[in-house]
Write a structure and sequence with these properties.
Blueprint (H helix, E strand, L loop, with lengths): L12 H18 L13 E6 L5 H12 L3 E6 L11 H10 L4 E6 L4 H5 L6 E7 L5 H15 L6 E5 L6 H12 L3 E5 L17 E3 L2 H4 L5 E4 L15 H8 L3 H6 L5 E3 L12 H4 L6 H21 L3
Parallel strand pairs: 1-2, 1-3, 3-4, 5-6, 5-8, 6-7, 8-9
The protein binds phosphoric acid mono(formamide)ester.
The site of phosphoric acid mono(formamide)ester has 9 residues, from helix 2.
């Protein structure tokens, strides 16, 4: 049994499938009048967020509360971090308060790993810098399984700002583990050659239009302007023309293929509003599945057999 969830590489196919199976059971709780299980009663889950988040923070909070855990939300903004308190001292403070699990989002890659040295409980990586976002990959693969019936054998195109994307890295790793074929697509400035060697089966393409007819899943990535300290493409209009998913490109995808996006979206930059809102898009479903998958992760790390 795993204690921490720091990287999608921590997950073998059996564990990832177990999380998907538990998430499918957890999803039934959402349909009940009383959306609560007693599994984590008396346990404390701390959400420690040093970076902005809408989906991940709220879904971890809902997930922990549905399992009856006590939840503490800690945001760096408005805390003693702004007075210069270090991550280590913050971790010790949380440890003194009896945190059983710490869900951490941090702008520094590797911060969740450091945290495991300073707290006794489980650490769940909710996104660290440009490194990883493993629960996002779990909810994305869960969504693929729900929509397509399987993950193994799927052709998945991950498109856009791969360079800055922890979502791309975690998905590439987990999709490989689960037997899907991944192609990274984007301008050469945003699809670094080093990414191509992340897994043996990873493909790289700079021609979005040639990839579309063969894709079962097209996963669009947000252009992360806040992490860009140089000009990676001439203009947003030029980027959209080459790598934006508009209605014409949607029509070139196979009829069964789905469109994904982890959010938040830049409508009109990487995806057209009508594509984001189309029945082929799983964007809202991904958010709902995020709660079930995070319930499954908390259950496995804190609940089952501990
Ligand atoms: N997908 C994702 O991580 O969204 P948030 O930044 O809103 O958590």
């Amino acid at each position: 049994m795993i204690k921490h969830l720091l990287s999608a590489a921590d997950l073998d196919a059996v564990t990832a499938t177990q999380i998907h199976d538990i998430a499918a059971e957890m999803a039934t709780v959402a349909g009940r009048e009383v959306k609560k299980l007693p599994t984590l009663r008396g346990r404390t889950v701390v959400n420690l967020f040093y970076e902005d988040s809408t989906r991940t923070r709220t879904s971890f909070e809902v997930a922990a509360k549905r399992l009856s855990a006590d939840v503490v939300n800690f945001s760096a903004k408005g805390s003693s971090v702004e007075k210069g308190e270090s991550l280590k001292d913050t971790a010790w403070t949380l440890q003194a308060m009896g945190a059983d699990a710490v869900v951490i989002r941090h702008p520094a890659s590797g911060a969740p790993h450091r945290l495991t040295h300073w707290v006794h409980g489980s650490v769940l990586n909710a996104g660290d810098g440009t490194h990883e976002h493993p629960t996002q990959a779990l909810l994305d693969t869960y969504t693929m399984r729900s929509r397509m019936g399987k993950v193994e054998g799927l052709n998945v195109a991950i498109v856009g700002d791969v360079l800055h994307s922890r979502v791309a890295r975690s998905n590439a790793l987990l999709l490989h583990t689960l037997g899907a074929k991944v192609t990274l697509v984007g301008p050469p400035t945003l699809v670094p050659p080093a990414f191509g060697s992340l897994t043996p089966s990873l493909g790289v393409s700079y021609d979005f239009d040639s990839v579309l007819p063969h894709a079962d899943v097209v996963m669009m990535l947000r252009v992360q302007k806040e992490r860009m300290n140089a000009a990676f493409f001439p203009s947003s209009q030029e980027y959209y023309k080459r790598y934006g998913l508009d209605s014409a490109r949607l029509r070139r995808m196979p009829d069964h293929a789905i469109v994904m996006h982890p959010g938040p979206m830049n409508r009109g930059v990487e995806i057209a509003p009508e594509v984001a809102d189309s029945p082929r898009s799983t964007i809202v479903e991904q958010v709902a599945n995020g709660v079930s998958v995070r319930m499954a992760c908390l259950y496995l790390l804190l609940g089952a057999g501990r």
